[in-house]
Prior knowledge:
The strands form three sheets. Strands 2-1-6-5-7 form a five-stranded parallel β-sheet, with helices on both faces. The protein has a two-stranded antiparallel ribbon with strand order 3-4. Strands 8-9 form a two-stranded antiparallel sheet. Strand 8 and strand 9 form a beta hairpin. The protein is 33% helix and 16% strand. By secondary structure, it is an alpha/beta fold. The chain has eight helices and nine strands. It has two domains: 2-152, 3-Layer(aba) Sandwich (Alpha/beta knot), CATH 3.40.1280.10; 167-226, Trp Operon Repressor, Chain A, CATH 1.10.1270.
Amino acid sequence: xxxxxxxxxxxxxxxxxxxxxxxxxxxxxxxxxxxxxxxxxxxxxxxxxxxxxxxxxxxxxxxxxxxxxxxxxxxxxxxxxxxxxxxxxxxxxxxxxxxxxxxxxxxxxxxxxxxxxxxxxxxxxxxxxxxxxxxxxxxxxxxxxxxxxxxxxxxxxxxxxxxxxxxxxxxxxxxxxxxxxxxxxxxxxxxxxxxxxxxxxxxxxxxxxxxxxxxxxxxxxxxxxxx
Length: 227
Ligand code: ADE
């Protein structure tokens, strides 16, 4: 999968994909992330990319021309499955959406800044809008990093143990069960005995019960749409 990200602060995205699972995904050739500086595409003097909003009001708006040129330039090289705009007023991101996008070939992500982007870009180029939660970030970059990470780890072959993504929280609309490692007794706090019993069926049943209990306590909304 290839993901192109357009940003006015591309340096913000230097680190998130340079470590751990995202680094491995790229090293294996399963994921390619290319970050573009929007200012490289502007036709305006002084690398201008934003301007005052029509109708007045505080906050600058990202101009349509640099964005249109950037998007069209990238689209000349490959077809994109989605052109995604990161914005707090989009539908909220979730694991199901990450699963769906992990099967795509080419994604483009536009990071907003200032007061947002000119609505005409949203109307004519953007195919999908995404919010990562009900709070406002200074720009779309950190949200884009969240998106790429959550998608990238689901690309087939990225995780060593394929089943580990399947047992993540949310994969089956349940939160994860508690996990333990050595030592079995840490400062007098014992690991649940069932995990030591060696019976995979009992362990599985206990984990499911714990996942259900956690979900009921913390996120009952996740259980509501289970048939
Ligand atoms: N840009 C600013 N805030 C955001 C959010 N919550 N989600 C996605 N993009 C954003």
